[in-house]
Amino acid sequence: MRLTKALSTAALIAGLGLSAPAFAQQASYDEATLEAFVTAAIAITEVEQDYTAQLAEAESEAEQQELIAAANERIIGAIEATPGVDVDTYVEISQAAQADPELSERLIAMAQEQQDEQTN
Questions:
Q1: d(CA 87, CA 94)
Q2: pLDDT tens digit string along 30-87?
Q3: Alpha-carbon gap, residue 29 to 49, rounded angstroms
Q4: Which residues contact 53 (CB under 8 A, 6 or more apart)?
């Protein structure tokens, strides 16, 4: 599913030094925050799709690094542009979903609902 890929992107963001405290994995989130997370995750998936082909066509490692930096900026921008979630909260939820299969399944179902609504 698309959200799974977006969740892996959040792990990359966490690796950039935006990691959340370990206790956040045990936090609970209200429905509005989870909806905002899913909205941001869908936007991130679109960014990934935009850059995947470009990365494959990059002719040098330097060009790849520039594309990755640009993609990371757009990913952070997509999160910040989503009302109801910030980068830290996005990363916290992503980490929590990686540790909690039930939360992960819930987020995937929410993403599917949002995508279905967008296509109808």
A1: 10
A2: 999 999 999 999 999 999 999 998 988 999 999 999 999 999 999 999 999 999 999 9
A3: 28
A4: none
Closest to 33 in 3D by CA, of 96, 116, 77: 96
Q: Are 47 and 75 in contact (CB under 8 A)?
A: yes
Q: Give the pair of three-digit tokens for residue 42.
A: 């869908």
- Token pair for residue 9? 């992107």
Query: What's residue 119's pLDDT?
Result: 83
Q: Which of 106, 54, 114, 112 is nearest to 82 (CA)?
A: 114
CB atoms within 10 A of CB 1: 13
The string of DSSP codes covering 5-64 is HHHHHHHHHIIIIIPPPGGGGG----HHHHHHHHHHHHHHHHHHHHHHHHHHH--SHHHH
Chain centroid to CA 45: 7
Half-sphere exposure of 30 (CA within 13 A, CB side): 4
The angle, 0 to 180 degrees and rounded to 10, between the axes of the packed helices 101-119 and 2-13 is 120
